[in-house]
From TrEMBL:
InterPro entries on file: DUF4012
Key word Transmembrane present: yes
Taxon lineage: Bacteria, Bacillati, Bacillota, Clostridia, Eubacteriales
Protein's name in the database: DUF4012 domain-containing protein
Alphabetical keyword list: Membrane, Transmembrane, Transmembrane helix
Membrane-spanning intervals of the chain: 29-54
Length: 627
């Protein structure tokens, strides 16, 4: 028995060492090796970076929390410390994301989100570099934003402007050094796609969109401060005080530069401080004018008046031309104080400012009047034109209202001040504010940033500007909307253009605020254009002339919209169409369309060949088409 067991054990031992028995062991070793390698790769390229990323994100959250705490406490020292920490942590995060760059190729949206995240982090990294460069400058202007730096603390908007002016010259070198970093951040962030984040990630996309808008605004405006520091200081009364003539235009009664000039005022700025503000009814200033030239044919026929008045001087959509007209009237006023420039402010800007400061309370002989962004236009009209106040004082309401508003605006702070600054920026671009300065450097800056209502004299390619003037249409422009279209066709080797303006007036005639609309409309087109036809104007012969001041040919005519006597009547609509030949040499592949100041509800359609584009018309635009 023992012998048999020994023999069997020997045979089994032989089988174990045979070639066939060694193959399964090799396969098991290979599979274990492959599994170990895969596991090592997963740990090296997924787990380890994931743990590091999680640790870094947790650190970033803590730093951001400390930064927010310092911000809430308005402690600039604490904020600056956390900014330095954040800069270092974001740089480390960017390097860690590089370890998992293979994620950019993962399908199912993962790859795109990774690329978006990487672009966003790269932008943060570049932006933090710029912030670091700016820290010395930020320390100087931090009190302007309400931060404590030593014992310095500035609260009101007026104090902030004054402090900004005093620091402007020393800010420029830091801005110059930081600009390339912010420009790089803007470029990187523009590569990210907020729309890639949906569902529970939608808040990420929303924040990304906000960040893109913010950094783009910063990058656009940094050169303004950098290149125009001297001009800005001059405008803000440094080193010598400046006095400006303010003209308040009622956009409900549209005119070429934005509205009927209903009130005027003076503002004196001394080293960023508003020394005084005065505002009064324009008719009172007009009564002091001694220059009385005959009225133009259009004004004499449709207003109608025998003489041209200061209040009707803004007939040219080219603001520098209108300013020359105004100065001619103003210079004839005995004892009129000299001014360093003219600032036009229209109704839409005033509405926005009233909303920014949370409404205003205006004192009147009949008691205080509450105005907010929604009711301001109607209440102002009721007080100034309706039966709200006695005739002897009703026109003073606009001046009193503007003084009240300016007081609140220049004493704003915190989020309120931020809203005001945003409104000013938007209104400059939408031509709700127009600037004209005597100082050549200041005026050059204004024209460079298209804040002066200057009609483009030397245009490359095609051009169009449609200017509508409300003549006895009362205040219908509060609710009026416009649609402008222009279409170019090649006909027998020449370019023929058809441009239209379509009016839509939903107002119901009430006899004083809203009435059937009457206006004079002008089409400014390339100099040398030849009129083929004009339709939609009344029986008065239309105007056709060359305006050599702005290098444009002008086609114009008088418009009568149908009356709307009840809400059951159709909305009043009307279209004026001009058809004309473009002069030889004008290339319609590039079209410049300039916006009339004071227009708040307008769309634009441009068509050239097979290309048609329709946009909200809120600023000057240039279109390019295939040649």
């Amino acid at each position: 028995m023992k012998k048999c067991l020994t023999s069997l054990a020997g045979e089994l031992n032989g089988l174990a060492h045979s070639p066939r028995s060694r193959q399964p062991r090799r396969r098991r070793w290979v599979w274990r090796s492959v599994f170990g390698l895969v596991l090592a790769l997963v740990v090296a390229f997924v787990v380890a970076p994931g743990l590091v990323l999680a640790h870094q994100v947790l650190g970033l959250k803590k730093t951001v929390s400390r930064l927010e705490a310092g911000n809430r406490a308005h402690n600039f020292g604490a904020v600056a410390q956390q900014i330095n920490t954040l800069e270092s942590e974001i740089a480390h995060l960017r390097r860690t994301l590089g370890w998992v760059s293979y994620l950019r190729w993962v399908p199912g949206g993962v790859g795109q989100k990774y690329r978006d995240g990487q672009d966003a982090v790269a932008a943060l990294n570049e932006g933090m570099k710029g912030v670091h460069v700016l820290l010395p400058a930020l320390a100087r202007i931090a009190p302007l934003a309400g931060y404590h730096v030593g014992h310095t603390h500035v609260r009101s908007g007026q104090q902030k402007i004054q402090a900004f002016v005093s620091q402007l010259a020393v800010l420029v070198p830091d801005l110059t050094r930081a600009y390339p970093d912010f420009k790089a951040a803007n470029y990187d962030l523009a590569l990210a796609h907020p729309q890639d984040f949906s569902g529970y990630l939608a808040p990420v996309g929303k924040k990304l969109l906000t960040a893109q808008s913010l950094i783009n605004t910063v990058v656009k405006n940094m050169p303004l401060v950098d290149h125009s520091a001297v001009a800005l200081q001059s405008i803000l009364g440094y080193p010598h005080a400046k006095r400006y003539l303010l003209i308040f235009q009622n956009s409900g009664e549209l005119r070429a530069t934005g509205g009927f000039m209903t009130a005027y005022g003076y503002v004196t700025v001394d080293r960023g401080k508003l020394a005084s503000i005065k505002a009064q009814n324009m008719y009172l200033l007009d009564a002091e004018v001694t220059y009385h030239p005959p009225a133009s044919t259009v004004i004499a026929t449709y207003l109608p008046v025998y003489y041209w008045h200061l209040r009707d001087a803004n007939t040219s959509p080219n603001v520098p031309t209108t300013v020359q007209y105004i100065k001619r009237f103003y210079a004839s006023i005995p004892g009129a104080p000299p001014v360093d420039g003219i600032i036009f402010i229209d109704t839409w800007f005033v509405d926005k400012l009233i909303g920014d400061v949370g409404g205003i309370t205006v004192p009147t002989p009949k008691g205080p009047v509450q105005l907010n962004a929604q009711n301001a236009n109607m209440k102002m009209e009721y007080m100034a034109e309706g039966q709200g106040l006695p005739d002897s004082v009703r026109k003073k309401f606009i001046g009193t209202m503007m003084k009240t508003l300016f007081h609140d605006v220049f004493h704003s702070h915190g989020l309120e001040l931020a809203r005001v600054l945003k409104t000013v920026n938007q209104s400059l671009n939408q031509k709700f504010i127009l600037l004209n300065f005597n100082n050549p450097a200041a005026q050059k800056m204004v024209e460079e940033y298209n804040w002066g209502g200057v009609m483009d004299k030397n245009v490359s390619g095609d051009y169009l500007s449609v200017v509508d003037e409300n003549l006895l249409g009362h205040k219908d422009n509060y609710v009026m909307s416009y649609h402008i279209t222009t279409q170019v066709r090649r006909v027998h080797g020449r370019y023929q253009e058809t441009s239209r303006i379509t009016y839509r007036d939903p107002a119901v005639d009430n006899g004083w605020l809203f009435v059937p609309y009457h206006s004079w409309v002008r089409f400014y087109v390339p100099l040398g254009s030849t009129l083929i036809s004009i339709t939609g104007v009344d029986g008065i012969p239309p105007e056709t002339y060359n305006n050599t001041v702005v290098n444009k040919t002008v086609f114009g005519g008088h418009v009568d919209l149908p009356a709307r006597n009840a809400k059951t009547d159709p909305v009043a609509t009307h279209t004026v169409t001009v058809r004309y030949w473009l002069p030889p040499g004008v290339n319609p592949a590039r079209l410049t369309v300039q916006l009339q100041p004071g227009v708040n509800h307008q769309t634009l359609t441009v068509e050239e060949g097979a290309v048609t584009r329709t946009v909200a018309f809120t600023h000057d635009m240039i279109f390019h088409f295939p040649s």
